[in-house]
């Protein structure tokens, strides 16, 4: 493949940056995103061929007389930084070769009801979803706790975690279409009696490894932690249990009233709360420490501030969100879908690394506007396997546009990630993306019609008025019928923020409706960044390192393969400024400038500050990982999540390299160098190897770290 074939230029740029992909980037494009026939022969000759295939497929949604025009505009946007999510890149225009695949990255399951039929029905739906190439998220705290009596069976339940094991095995077994392995998110309520078992689940080797795990953390719990109060662990009481006289719902020592995903079969009050049996109470701070110790050791569970998610949801009037997609950037209602794309910010840097380095805001807004139309078109070709999924996405048309390469872009602009200037830039990028998106959403509604939910009439309830007291001031009463567009534009907390800077736009959206209910979210973009963006930094992150290794799954290989990669900004700096520049060099002629930061150079609170600045203008959520050094003291680490809560985030995740747990996807050579792994041989002797040492085992070469993990986790030889 020629360098010319890989070059993608923006006419606004004043300097060239690397156009040729590094080998790792080209390899991932070839394996995951390049269309091939069933014999493995490439159909996309170049990356630009991939772009043209995707643009052609998305333009087919347009009217016949407009198709050529929008095909050209879509190709332009793709060449200038618009990168649809992986399922769109892989599957758009590929129906002749992959007819049963979806262009949607992930979905959320319907509510799992507490019955064998309910559990197995959702397992079947999940299998069909994974087979189509989509990841999926579920809430499992709707299942009764371990040891609870099942009257119909005359037995005691094994609890939610045992059923999660079934979903885990299903995900590993089902062959996921479109070149991706299955991905799952399991969420769990902080008040469930089995919450500690959920938190500690991954301490068991090989358990729930097809899942990301996140806690649904409530405002009430965070206040209990702050006040050092007791925290009751509870589960709903069935109508049958109440009928049998097992509980006195008037006894506050036995029963607590809480909101629950559904009230079917349970006892509820006028506010929709469900009567829950208190199994036991624990100290909130003690439970908090259990969470923090687990995240310190195992990087899980993640942290979803579910009350904040629902309070800030644009569809606050008709959705109760309890789960997210596997990476957490899309909190979704039952059967909701995750339609994603990211704008590569590095494409808009002019004069990189120079004192006059600047960002091309005009071209950025133009790309966002065209890209918004592209993502909206994906709704018509979703390929989702379940009717409920198709109805949800067609009725609301939500998508999540974000950006990638923030860390790389800041470096090219000579701005230190986490600084005041970086926070200001991040907020402006997010605001410009949002405002451009909503302007385009109004234009699309005028051209093609708003999302159906915008014209749907919703009955005002007492609960709605309690959530939005300003509706009372505006004259609304219980029983009134109100169009979705009014509830969305005027009374969404997020749209109220948009109205603070563009009130006329929001009022027009209230009167006419928008083409979609949600426009933005920021995804982790791991393989997308590494491949199509030539390893620009993931999503909103700083670069993990400027030279490091990535562990990848190879079909037919018995452990993960370690491949070396370089950051985009390092490659650009070598090409434009200093060809000898090297990370960690002591030679002054090879050293990088001080603004070349990595994730380990940034304090945890600075990570949070960046995420908080962006979240102001992101209507969905942000997938962000706060990478911390292996040797960070626990006392310094444990308050990160509380700081995230104080700063209004919807969620938070951390990662600390811990060789005793698992090493993760990205690894630094220095971490592997100082980590020793022990292997016990058949004769009883023990061999010690450094993590980065190559070792021959079972006819293959492996790094010691990858071999150790594969054997410990039980996936050796199963790819």
Structure, described:
With 719 residues, this protein is an alpha+beta fold. Among the domains are: 106-331, Anaerobic Ribonucleotide-triphosphate Reductase Large Chain; 453-512, no CATH class. The protein has 29 helices and 29 strands. An 8-stranded mixed sheet has the order 14-2-3-6-7-11-24-23. Strands 1-15-18 form a 3-stranded mixed sheet. The chain has a 3-stranded antiparallel sheet with strand order 8-10-9. Strand 6 (184-189), helix 8 and strand 7 form a beta-alpha-beta unit. The two termini are 29 Å apart.
Question: What order do the strands of the largest sheet run in, or round the barrel if closed?
Answer: 14-2-3-6-7-11-24-23
CATH topology of the domain at 106-331: Anaerobic Ribonucleotide-triphosphate Reductase Large Chain
Largest sheet: 8 strands, mixed
Q: What is the second-level CATH architecture of the domain at 106-331? A: Alpha-Beta Barrel
Structural class: alpha+beta
Describe what is shown at a glance.
The chain has 719 residues and is an alpha+beta fold. It is built from 29 helices and 29 strands.
Give the helix/strand layout:
Elements: H1 3-6, H2 23-33, H3 47-59, H4 67-79, E1 82-84, H5 86-91, E2 106-108, H6 116-131, E3 135-139, E4 149-150, E5 155-156, H7 160-173, E6 184-189, H8 195-199, E7 211-217, H9 219-227, E8 230-236, H10 239-243, E9 255-258, E10 274-283, H11 284-298, E11 302-305, H12 306-311, E12 323-324, E13 331-332, E14 337-338, E15 340-344, E16 349-350, E17 358-359, H13 361-378, H14 387-396, E18 400-404, H15 406-412, H16 420-448, H17 452-455, E19 457-459, H18 462-467, H19 470-473, E20 481-483, H20 484-491, H21 493-499, H22 503-512, H23 526-531, E21 547-552, E22 561-566, H24 568-576, H25 604-615, E23 625-628, H26 634-637, H27 640-646, E24 651-656, E25 666-667, H28 669-673, E26 676-680, E27 686-690, E28 694-697, E29 700-703, H29 704-713
Parallel strand pairs: 2-3, 3-6, 6-7, 7-11, 15-18, 23-24
Antiparallel strand pairs: 1-15, 2-14, 4-5, 8-10, 9-10, 11-24, 12-13, 16-17, 19-20, 21-22, 21-25, 26-27, 28-29
Helix pairs in contact: 3-4, 4-13, 6-7, 13-16, 16-22, 16-25, 20-21, 20-22, 21-22
């Amino acid at each position: 493949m020629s360098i010319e074939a890989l070059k993608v230029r923006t006419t606004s740029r004043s300097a060239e940056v690397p156009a040729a992909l590094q080998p790792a980037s080209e390899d991932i494009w070839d394996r995951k995103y390049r269309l091939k026939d069933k014999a493995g022969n490439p159909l996309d000759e170049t990356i630009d061929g991939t772009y043209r295939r995707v643009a052609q497929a998305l333009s087919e949604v347009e009217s016949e007389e407009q198709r050529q025009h929008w095909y050209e505009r879509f190709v332009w946007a793709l060449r200038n930084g618009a990168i649809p999510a992986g399922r769109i890149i892989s599957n758009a225009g590929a129906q002749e070769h992959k007819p049963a695949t979806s262009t949607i990255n992930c979905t959320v399951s319907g509510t799992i009801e507490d019955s064998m039929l309910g559990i197995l029905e959702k397992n079947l739906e999940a299998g069909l979803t994974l087979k189509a190439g989509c990841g999926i998220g579920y809430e499992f705290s709707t299942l009764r706790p371990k040891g609870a009596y099942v009257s119909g069976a005359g037995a005691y339940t094994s609890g939610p975690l045992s059923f999660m094991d079934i979903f885990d095995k299903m995900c590993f077994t089902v062959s996921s279409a479109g070149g991706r392995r299955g991905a799952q998110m399991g969420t769990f309520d902080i008040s469930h009696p089995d919450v500690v078992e959920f938190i500690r689940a991954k301490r068991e080797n090989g358990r729930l490894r097809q899942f990301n795990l996140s806690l649904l953390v409530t405002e009430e719990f965070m206040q209990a932690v702050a006040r050092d109060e007791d925290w009751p662990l509870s589960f709903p009481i069935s109508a049958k249990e109440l009928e049998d006289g097992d509980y006195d719902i008037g006894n506050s020592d036995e029963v607590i009233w809480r909101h629950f995903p559904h009230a079917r079969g349970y006892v509820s009050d006028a506010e929709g709360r469900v009567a829950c049996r208190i199994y036991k109470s624990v100290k909130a701070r003690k439970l908090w420490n259990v969470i923090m110790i687990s995240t310190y050791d195992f990087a899980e569970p993640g942290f979803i501030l579910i009350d904040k998610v629902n309070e800030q949801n644009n569809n606050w009037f008709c959705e109760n969100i309890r789960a997210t997609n596997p990476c957490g950037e899309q909190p979704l209602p039952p059967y909701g879908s995750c339609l994603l794309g990211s704008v590569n910010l590095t494409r808009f840097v002019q004069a990189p690394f120079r004192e006059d380095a600047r960002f091309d805001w005009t071209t950025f807004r133009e790309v966002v506007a065209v890209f918004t139309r592209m993502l909206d078109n994906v709704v018509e070709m979703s390929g989702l396997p379940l009717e409920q999924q198709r109805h949800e996405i067609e009725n609301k048309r939500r998508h999540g546009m974000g950006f990638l390469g923030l860390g790389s872009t800041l470096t090219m602009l000579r701005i230190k990630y986490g600084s005041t200037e970086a926070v200001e830039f991040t907020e402006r990028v997010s605001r410009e993306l949002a405002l451009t998106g909503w302007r385009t959403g109004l234009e699309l509604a005028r051209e093609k019609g708003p999302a159906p939910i915008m014209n749907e009439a919703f009955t005002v309830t007492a609960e709605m008025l309690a959530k939005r007291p300003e509706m009372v001031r505006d004259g609304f009463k219980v029983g009134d019928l109100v169009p979705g567009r009014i509830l969305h534009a005027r009374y969404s907390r997020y749209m109220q923020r948009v109205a603070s800077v563009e009130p006329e736009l929001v009022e027009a959206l209230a009167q006419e409706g928008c083409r979609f209910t949600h426009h933005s979210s920021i995804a982790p973009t791991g393989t997308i960044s590494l491949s199509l963006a030539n390893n620009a930094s993931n999503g909103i992150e700083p670069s993990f390192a400027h030279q490091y290794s990535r562990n990848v799954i190879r079909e037919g290989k018995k452990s993960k393969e370690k491949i070396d990669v370089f950051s985009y900004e390092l490659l650009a700096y070598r090409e434009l400024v200093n060809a000898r520049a090297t990370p960690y060099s002591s030679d002054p002629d090879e050293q990088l400038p001080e603004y070349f930061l990595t994730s380990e150079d940034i304090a945890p609170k600075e990570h949070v500050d960046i995420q908080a600045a962006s979240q102001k203008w992101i209507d969905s959520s942000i997938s962000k990982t706060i990478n911390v050094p292996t040797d960070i003291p626990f006392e310094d680490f444990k308050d990160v999540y509380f700081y995230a809560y104080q700063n209004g985030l919807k969620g938070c995740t951390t990662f600390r390299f811990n060789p005793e747990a698992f090493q993760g996807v990205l690894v630094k050579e220095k971490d592997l160098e100082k980590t020793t792994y022990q292997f016990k041989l058949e004769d009883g002797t023990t061999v010690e190897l450094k993590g980065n040492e190559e070792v021959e085992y079972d006819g293959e070469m492996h790094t010691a770290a990858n071999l150790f993990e594969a054997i410990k986790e039980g996936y050796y030889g199963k790819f």
